[in-house]
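Chapter review. Work through the record for Phytanoyl-CoA hydroxylase-interacting protein-like protein before attempting the end-of-chapter questions.
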Amino acid sequence: MNPEKDFVPLTPNIVRALNDKLHEKRKVAALEIEKPTLGRAGILQSLPAATRPLLSQTRLPLPLPALKENKYSNKFKHKDVPTNLVAKAVPLPMTVRGHWFLSPRTKYTVAVQTASNQVDDDYAVSEWSEIIEFCTADYSKVHLTQHLEKAKVIAGHMLKFSGFYRKQHKEYFAYIREHHGNAMQPSVKDDSGSHGPPISEKLETIFFSCSPEFNTGKPPQDSPYGRHRFEIAAEKLFNPNNNLYFGDLYCMYTAYHYVILVIAPVGSPGDEFCKQHLPQLNSKDNKILTCTEEDGMLVYHHAQDVILEVIYTDPVDLSLGTMAENTGHQLMSLSIANAKKDPSCKTCNISVGH
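Structure tokens for Phytanoyl-CoA hydroxylase-interacting protein-like protein:
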């Protein structure tokens, strides 16, 4: 083995040269190589005694991992994937590990290239390695709990409210009466909001709101969903016979944020799903939505500084509430169906790599 040919030391000049080559090829995602701060002698001294003679006589190889875009729709972009590549002194053969903070529920393709120093101080870059494809998982309870903690920070004061409402067009309610015996049926939640929560495209629910207008205390008259509104007393959906779960926190390039909570009847299929995948909230004591008892009556409060979306996991009969008409603008352009979360917002994003 010729160490001068096959291996390269970690020096600033080499780092710059390698980065220049990789940028020319445009096949490395945000590559950053950190030079060890101890110096070669310091690194050797910090290693086990048995490995020092071997490393003192050789120079470290420098494999260079890289990511390539794949053919799928959920593919990463270079600017979306911060990359921190750290070279460490270890017994040969050496592996350089790259740490990428990847998006949840996304398909990726990974390939690797290596570079070696030549006698003329140039560098030979290998062909791409065999391609590995994988898909990242949904957010875990740990990740959702981190979102929940962020939601608590921005929730604000609690305001009293008395009911939930659901806005839709006239044809929707007519279809419910004709084909479902007057009972609204849960359907799979769309892919709006964060990309990682397990409720998206998996949990069947019915969407409700509870945030009233500040000046009237009543449901907003403007609506992106339809002119007709179903209103139901809060105790019909949210009571001691139901469990409360945190589902998501997101924004859509705006100053205000959305919080999704899930209400599930105890022991229902939706409740079992939520127990496995979502953080459960104490219905009587949390900073977002509460149900408490005062003088024998159930009293309800919600956080005023977030837009609260409540999804219910069981059918709801229209006879349990009343119908009304929204008199304001329809605002169809403000519909958030499948709208994506702002990935750059520091208020509602977490780093799953930490």
